[in-house]
Structure formats: C-alpha cells, structure tokens
TrEMBL record:
Entry annotated with the keyword Transmembrane: yes
The species this protein was found in: Chitinophaga alhagiae
Transmembrane domains' residue ranges: 6-24, 31-54, 60-82, 156-174, 194-220
The protein's name in its UniProt record: Uncharacterized protein
UniProt keyword annotations, A-Z: Membrane, Transmembrane, Transmembrane helix
Amino acid sequence: MLDIPFYIPFTFMLTTFAALFFFYRAGQSAAVLYILLLWLALQGILTRNGFYAVTDTRPLRFLLLVLPPVLGILLIFLTGAGRAWMNGLDYQRLTWLHVVRVPVELILFWLYGRQLVPAIITFEGRNFDILSGLTAPFIAWYGYMRPRLPKGVLIGWNLVCLGLLLNVVIHAILSAPTPIQQLAFDQPNRAVLYFPFVWLPGCIVPLVLFSHLATIRALLRKA
C-alpha cells in the first residue's frame, strides 16, 4: 500500500466508477458491466497482494494487466457480435466518458507531488491529455446533443485526443520501474503498480481507447 492521503485513492476510485457508469450508459449491456467489475476485482486482489510490485520478472507481470483489455477490444472489433453491439452504442454518452480524464490528470499531479509518478506524465511535463477532458462536454453537446459540428471536426477531435492518450501511455510505460524503463529514473512511475491506481492502465485507459476507436468507426460509417 502507498502511504498517501485517503482523498487521493478515494477520488481515483470515484473516477474509475464514473468511467464505468458512462460506459455502461453508452452500451446498456449488463454482461459487459459485470465483466468489467470482475476484472476490477481481480486486479484489485492481485495488486493488494503485491503481484505487480515485482517488476524484475520476464515476461513482465504488467502484461497480465494491459494485454487482456487490448485483446478484448480486438475481439469486439473483429467479431460480428462485437460490431453489432458497437452499432448500438450511444456515442453522445461515450463522448461524455472522456470527462474523467480531467480528474485523472489532477490525481496524477497529486501523485507527482508525492514522488510516485514523474513530472513527464503530468500536465507540468509532456502530458496534455487534460485538454481532451476539458473539451469533451463541448464535443458531446455540439456534436450530438445539439448537432452543429461537421463529421470531419468530430473525427479530427477523436484523432487528436487519441494521439494525446497514446503520448501519455508511451511515456508512462517507459517511465515505469521495469526492465524496459527508459525515462524518469530519478522518480519513476510507481503508483500504477499499486491499488487502486492499477485500474488506470487496466480499466480507464482501455475504456478511453475503445471509446475513441469505436466513435471513429461509427463516424466513418456514416454516409
């Protein structure tokens, strides 16, 4: 466990469940929600037992956290049932999901102040992902609720925000204390190895990634 004030993990857990709420509301699938909740519980148990804190193994234990969600996203895109489910998504609500990126960035900044993540993955460094969360309400309102924005703008916003997400993910991976670490050796990205922050790469990031990819697919399919 990390020796940090209670408000930091508490705020992060609320943020995680907010992301789950938006995602569930967009798809209205109880089965998907149950799978995600079981996934969170499993990762919570592993992390509480210090599973991911051991970083010198090969293959990296961290792969057990990030690969299953990636494979799940691929399965949705590559199967008929998955594509059919995506066709019924509420993309307005899926766009609102990106608002959670604002508290995530604030939490990363708090963790940086506690020397648990490096500056490069906060908005004081090379992470500009907070812009995605700040602009998401505007896109949701004028893109879907009161449609004013052309399809090209919506696609462009999703592509830019997807790039911002990949930027911070790459920096986070390369600054984590593993054998492949390349950045931030003086203050590595340690927080994501502990509960509940393990849910960031294990749940929030995959949900945000899927939301962008599914939305781009839907926009490209429009006549």
